[in-house]
Design goal:
The complex is a heterodimer of chains A (376) and B (112). Chain A is of the alpha+beta class. Chain A has 10 helices and 19 strands. Chain A folds into 2 domains: 302 residues, no CATH class; 50 residues, no CATH class. In chain A, the strands form 5 sheets. Chain A has a 5-stranded antiparallel sheet. Chain A has a 5-stranded antiparallel sheet with strand order 11-15-12-13-14. In chain A, strands 6-5-9-10 form a 4-stranded parallel sheet, with helices on one face. In chain A, strand 13 and strand 14 form a beta hairpin. The longest helix of chain A has 27 residues. Chain B is α+β, with helices and mostly antiparallel strands and 112 residues long. Chain B is extended and about 60 Å long. Classes of the chains: A alpha+beta (376), B alpha+beta (112). At the A-B interface, helix 4, helix 6, strand 7 and helix 7 of A face helix 1, helix 2, strand 3 and strand 5 of B.
């Protein structure tokens, strides 16, 4: 794995905008093609293997949480547990997830798993691929995200209700809308009938106890780019279990377990010999170098990095009331002052590609940059 | 790992590229418009925000509104997702049986 500095395309802004990628720059650059990461094929195969194994281990950990009734560690409200278990035993449709991995000197370590609402899907699946077509068509990329999404939606069609698949996300966020519309694009190409509704436009039909869209049509299948923990805190959260249609939510409710950082100590407890899993606990215990993470947090908020009992980096935010986990500090790879994190995608139970975000700080946050990659 | 040579996007390119058009003169940030979607409802002020013409069409569009009853569609008028429920519903019985806005208080963006 190497970081190579290169010249951005002259017209890169218009090139990515033609793809519908509108959030390439906010107050700081997000899409950054002034550098790329180069991997060898053996390195990519190693990442692919780790991703497949981690996915299997995660499924085992979900079963462990259910078998031992460990929901209290996750801050999950009791009323939703039957739906979590139903969605697991009935294998409700799930399509994707993104492991965040550190890759250094041939070692791969899991930092966390974005199993419910992973973003940067469009950048990883489409934008970096078209960058490669302009940069060097003869090269390859660890990227079959687009094909796998279309193929898996086609497969899932038989496991959804024979009705429209709605797609929803928050209003007024172009990043979320882009990711959601891209997902919908793939579902349409997979042969599904779809419709878009913003999350706060979803209606609850009082008399019939069903969710409806803006035309009062029943919502029976819905892909949501909106986290389960937020849904449960919302006023409509309790309606999810009262819903007469028993709507299929994608990702399903059991993903609440894997998207919660409380899964990290359980993974360590179950698989301490796994080379990809870092020691993690619910207390700092005897560790003097660790990362303290809220079990529910986003964009690197409320994280504290402690080295030799001294805090070396800390972020503010509004998360943490549900509790924290403590993960052994892993020295991140550093390339000229940049710390890259590999987002390795699982789509339809299979490794599907990667996207790299790099940051100038140890904590990858909302000012990190997406940097393309190729296989040399 | 190789992708097929031709990647087709059937939806996203056209839809999202419209979000990046420059603003028209009437789209300045401080202007107000008063709108309602039902003649029995009071008007509600809406404030324009930045973001461009195409994006606004998603927020302020007035969509046909109705109910399915025993498999038949009964038209009830129009509804806009972007204005206050009072300005949408008025005394319209069919619209009033549905409550909206119960999801979405969680945050500004998912970004994870």
């Amino acid at each position: 794995m190497e970081r190579i500095i290169t010249n951005p395309r002259n017209n890169w802004q218009s090139a990515v905008e033609k793809l519908g990628f509108g959030f390439h720059t906010t107050n700081v650059p997000y899409w950054d093609e002034s550098a790329y990461y180069s991997f060898t094929m053996p390195e990519v195969l190693k990442l692919e293997k780790a991703t497949a194994e981690l996915w299997d281990l995660c499924l085992g950990a979900v079963q462990h949480v259910m078998d031992n009734n460990l929901y209290h560690q996750f801050g999950i409200p009791e009323y939703i547990i039957p739906l979590i278990e139903k969605s697991w035993t009935e294998d409700h449709p799930a399509i994707y997830g993104r492991f965040d991995l550190a890759y250094k000197n041939g070692e791969i370590k899991l930092l966390e798993f974005n199993a419910d609402t992973p973003t940067s899907l469009y950048e990883a699946g489409i934008v970096q691929w078209f960058w490669l077509q302009d940069f060097d068509k003869s090269k390859d990329q660890f990227n079959s995200i687009h094909e796998k999404l279309i193929s898996y939606w086609r497969y899932l069609k038989n496991y959804l209700y024979n009705d429209t698949l709605h797609f929803t996300c928050l209003k007024e966020t172009l990043e979320d809308l882009t990711n959601t519309e891209y997902m919908r694009d793939c579902a349409m190409q997979g042969g599904l009938e779809t419709d878009l509704i913003f999350i706060d436009d979803i209606g609850w039909y009082e008399g019939r106890e069903v969710f409806v869209d803006t035309q009062n049509k029943d919502i029976k299948n819905i892909f949501k780019l909106y986290p389960w923990e937020w849904m449960l805190q919302d006023e409509f959260g309790k309606h999810i279990v009262a819903d007469k249609n028993k709507t299929l939510w994608v990702e399903p409710a059991w993903k609440m377990i894997l998207s919660n950082k409380a899964i990290l100590p359980i993974l360590w407890q179950l698989y301490p010999k796994c080379p990809y899993i870092l020691p993690a606990f619910y207390e700092a215990n005897q560790m003097n170098s660790y990362v303290k993470k809220p079990i529910l947090s986003r964009e690197g908020a409320n994280i504290e990095v402690v080295q030799n009992n001294l805090t070396i980096e800390k972020t503010e935010g509004e998360y943490g009331k549900e509790g924290y986990i403590y993960q052994e500090l892993y020295s991140l790879p550093r390339y000229g002052g940049n710390y890259p994190i590999i987002g390795s995608w699982v789509i339809g139970q299979q490794p599907a590609g990667m996207g790299i975000r790099e940051s100038t700080s140890l904590i990858t946050n909302n000012t990190s940059r997406f940097v393309p990659h190729l296989i040399d | 790992m190789k992708k097929s040579k031709y990647i087709e996007l059937v939806l996203i390119t056209a839809a999202l590229s419209s979000c990046h058009q420059s603003n028209n003169d009437w789209e300045n940030a401080n202007s107000h418009t008063y709108i309602r979607s039902d003649s029995s409802a009071p008007y509600s002020p809406v404030r324009h925000y930045g973001g461009g013409g195409g994006a606004r069409m998603w927020y302020y569009a007035f969509r046909p509104y109705g109910n399915y009853n025993n498999g038949y569609y009964e038209r009830a008028g129009y509804y806009s997702d972007a204005i206050h429920p009072n300005a949408n519903i008025g005394s319209n019985f069919y619209k009033g049986s549905v409550v909206r806005g119960g999801f979405g208080s969680g945050g500004f963006s998912v970004s994870s």
